[in-house]
């Protein structure tokens, strides 16, 4: 069973702080990792992808990947109230064909004024 | 403009009616997916397609059916709607290759009375 696990939260951080969202996955052969943001009532939107160990930065977002520990995280610097949403971790588990992502249950982030 | 479209966006319908949820993408993606998501809950994959005339059931059992006659079109049909089908239905697409990320449509919110 391929699994992606996230703490459901809610994670509450004050405005301007760093929000740290974590995700673990079950399959060592996974090569592609994604973070999606989903506002209430809306569809998920891709905000970060990461494929190799280390950090990847894009604006206020940093994705971190540690394949040995099967761990991927998302840091949001200078958190804003507009960052309040559910963040979904998604991992591609190679199968016999096609590409299916497995999504975690999501972590709800609340940025408080 | 390359995008993924879903119609209708909202649908309220009585029990026993047949409904078709439309999904079209203009991004030239070969893979398409249907997810079901209740408010505040996780995404569940119900159907996916690797290409024309190829469809597979997803991880969550669903009474719906899908077809893929054209690359850009992936409709979902419920032959007899029931209140238990009330949910949000999200369509997504992706391309073959190494990136593996999925792009989501805006969703259809279905209410069966």
Task: Describe this protein's structure.
The complex is a heterodimer of chains A (113) and B (113). With 113 residues, chain A is an all-beta fold. Helices cover 0% and strands 53% of the residues of chain A. Chain A has no helices and eleven strands. Chain A has strands at residues 4-5, 11-14, 19-25, 32-38, 45-50, 54-58, 61-66, 71-76, 85-92, 101-103, 107-112. In chain A, the strands form two sheets. In chain A, strands 2, 4, 5, 9, 10 and 11 form a six-stranded mixed β-sheet that branches. In chain A, a hairpin with an 8-residue loop joins strand 9 (85-92) and strand 10. Chain A starts with a strand and ends with a strand. The relative contact order of chain A is 0.35. By secondary structure, chain B is mostly beta strands. Chain B has strands at 4-7, 10-13, 19-25, 31-37, 44-51, 54-57, 65-66, 76-78, 87-94, 103-104, 108-112. The model of chain B has no long low-confidence stretch (mean pLDDT 93). The N and C termini of chain B lie far apart (36 Å). Helices cover 0% and strands 48% of the residues of chain B. Chain B contains no helices and eleven strands. In chain B, strands 2, 4, 5, 6, 9, 10 and 11 form a seven-stranded mixed β-sheet that branches. Chain A binds chain B through residues 32, 34, 40-46, 49, 51, 88, 90, 92, 97-101, 103-106, and chain B through 31, 33, 39, 42-43, 45, 48, 50, 90, 94, 96, 98-107, 109.
């Amino acid at each position: 069973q391929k699994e992606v696990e996230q703490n459901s939260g809610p994670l509450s951080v004050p405005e301007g702080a760093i929000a740290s969202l974590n995700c673990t996955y079950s399959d060592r052969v996974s090569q592609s990792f994604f973070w999606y943001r989903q506002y209430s009532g809306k569809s998920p939107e891709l905000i970060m992808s990461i494929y190799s160990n280390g950090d990847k930065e894009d604006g206020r977002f940093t994705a971190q990947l540690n394949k040995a520990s099967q761990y991927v995280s998302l840091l949001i610097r200078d958190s804003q109230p507009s960052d309040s949403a559910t963040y979904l971790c998604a991992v591609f588990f190679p199968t016999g064909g096609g590409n299916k992502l497995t999504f975690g249950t999501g972590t709800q982030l609340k940025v408080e004024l | 403009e390359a995008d993924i479209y879903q119609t209708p966006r909202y649908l309220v319908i009585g029990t026993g009616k047949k409904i078709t949820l439309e999904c079209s993408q203009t991004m030239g993606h070969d893979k398409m997916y249907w997810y079901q998501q209740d408010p505040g809950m996780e995404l569940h994959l119900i159907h996916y397609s690797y290409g024309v005339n190829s469809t597979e059931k997803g991880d969550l059992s669903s009474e719906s059916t899908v077809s893929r006659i054209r690359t850009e079109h992936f409709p979902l049909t419920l032959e007899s709607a029931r209140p238990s089908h009330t949910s949000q239905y999200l369509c997504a697409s992706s391309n073959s290759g190494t990136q593996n990320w999925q792009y989501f449509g805006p969703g259809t919110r279905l209410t069966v009375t």
